[in-house]
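Fold this sequence, please.
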Amino acid sequence: MLLLLGACHSSSAFKIDDTAGANADTASGLVEGAYDGPTVVINEAMAEHEVNPSSPEEGGDWLELYNPGGTEVILDGYFLDEARLGMGVAWPFPVGTRVPAHGYLLVGCSAWEGMADEVANFKLLADADEVALYVINDDGTAGVASRVRWELPVHLPNSWARLPNGGDEWRLSPNPTPRDANQ
């Protein structure tokens, strides 16, 4: 398991664990296995913000997925797994959900619809949380495509973002960029 310490614009730091197939359990109790699917990553996250924002930049809980590859990825059979207080919530992507080549998918959380492409059934916590993107393998294990974990209190207008898109480094970003290149 790889544990990275992300750089922040403040004096605080947050932990990132984004290793596929780390042989640990998912928050939903599934045993992790190998992942050999297409590259799709959790690229940016915003947690615990305004309840009814008019745009994703103004708030609302959301996750941005990014496909760095040259081929569209269909997320049939993929789930988001959110860990809160040790109890996971697995949310399946609707059949036919797609992430375009070199493109983004915005997932609203906590029933926030706003401008989201899809709406998950869980809320993100700003102080500490973990979300994994996985698919169930033929052997019943969870192939983890991407994972992010943070332990940093953060509030509007900040998001957690990979720099560059799809890269290994995460930073607290004062400029949320849903469906756009992270800054």
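Residues 30 and 169 are 27 Å apart (CA to CA). The radius of gyration is 15 Å.
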